[in-house]
Amino acid sequence: MLPPSMQEVISEVRNLTQAPVSMIAVTALSVIALACQGAIDVRRMEGLVGPTSLYFIIKALSGERKSTVEKVLMSAMYQFEQEQHEIYKKNVETYNQEMEIFKVRKKALLSELRVNTRKCRDTSDVVEQLSELHRSYPKSPVRYKLIFNDVTPAAMKEYLCGDYNSVGLMSHEAGSVFDSHALRDLPFMNQMWDGSTVSVQRKNADEILIKNARLTLSLMTQPKPFNKFIMRNDEEARGNGFLARFLICEPGSTQGYRLIENQNISTKNLKSFQNRLMEIIKKSTEILNNGEKKCLRFTNDAEKLWIKFHNDTEVETRDTGLLADFKDYASKMADNMARIAALLHYFWGYPGDISLDAVISARAICLWFGDEHIRLFSKSGEQKLIMNDENELWEWINNYCNQNLVKTGKPYMKKNAILQLGPNRFRDKTTLDNTLTALLLNGRIQVGKEGRTTIVKPKMINKTPAELLQGLDL
C-alpha cells in the first residue's frame, strides 16, 4: 500500500512506540501533508487544480500512545517552529528599533515642514525626504507558525491573512478541539479544504482576503468527544460536506501486547524522514515568500487509473452500490486520492509527473479509508446488535414523540426524558449517547436545543392524527 521507504519509517516508529500501525501510518501522512501543502498543488484533470491539504480523524481510546506517536513523527515540525520563534524574537527587537528611528526622523521632518510652511520657504526638499522615509517604512516581522493545537476560527483567519498561510490544526487530544470554538465555523473549514479565497470582514477595519492558504487537520480523539460533536453538529457537519472531507479511522488496540523485546531499535529511516520534512518545510517557506507553488500532474497511465477510480467510485453510489449510503463521502474520494498521490510522489523525491506507482498506493490508501468509513458508519454486518439497540430506542422515541405531538403539539422530546423514562439500558448516559450518535449518523433523528435543554426528534413520524389518537389515554 505504501512506498517501501515509508513502510520502513512506520516500522521503526512501531518498534519505538508499539502503537497501532494504522495510527502511525495516518499520522505520518498528516505530517507529510502539513509539510508539503505550502509547496505543491495537484492537477487532477484540465481545469481541476486543487490543494494537497488533508483532513484526518483518528479515533482511539486513552492509552493508545497517541501523543507519543505525534511527538516522534512531528519532532522536525516542533524544531522548525522553535528555530523560527527565536528568529522572530530577534526580528521583533530589530523592528522596534527601526520604528523608533522612523518616528524620530518623521517627527523632525514634520517639524521642519511646519517651520518652512509658516515662513513661506521652499518645502519641496522636505516633502521629498518625507516620501523617501515612508517608502522605507519598517516591515513588521513575519511569525512562521506551522501548528495550532486549539484556536478560534477568528484567530486562524487573522493568521491566514498574513504572509505565512500554510498551517495545521494538529492535536493528539482533540477532545478539547471538538468541545471548543475551533470547529464552530464549518463552512470556513470546508473552504480551506477546497483552497477557496475567503473574505474576512473585521470590525473597524477594511475587508481582507485569505488567498492561497492551506490547512491540514489531524485530530486524534477518544470516541466520546467525537460522538458529542456529532450530536451537536450532525445536521450541519453532514449536510454541508464537512465530515465527507475527512479520512476517518479507528485503529485496533495494541494494549496488552506491548511487550519490550528489543532495546536496540534502529531509527535510521526515521531520521531521514525528519530531515526530508525539514527540507520541505524550508522550501515551502521560501515559496510562500517569493514564488508560486509547484503544480503536479499525472503521467498518462496515472491519469487513466485516477479516472477509473473516480468512475468506479461514482458507480458505487448507485442504489445497489457499496457507497449508496455514503454519497457525500464518495464525492470526495477521488479528490483525496489525487492529493495523497501527489504528496507521496513529492515527499519521496520522485522526479517528473506523478507516477503510476504513487497513484496505485494512493488508491489503496483511499480504499482502506473507504472501508473504515463504511465499517464505522454502516448499518449492516457486524453492527446488527447495535442496530437492534438503535431500532429499539428509535421506536421508543418515535412513540413518545407521537404521543407528545397529540398532547402538546410538539413532535419532539427532552433528552433527559429518555434517561428518566426510557428502556432501562438506555438510562445509562454513555449507552444513550452512543446510541443517539448512531441514530444521528444514520439520519434517523435530529438533536437540537430549546433554550438550554437538549431535545430529540425522530425524522419520520408516519402516523396520521387519527391513528395517533387510537389507544391513547387522553
TrEMBL record:
Among the Pfam families in the record, one is DUF3987
Superkingdom of source: Bacteria
Q: Which InterPro entries match?
A: DUF3987
- The name under which this protein is listed is DUF3987 domain-containing protein
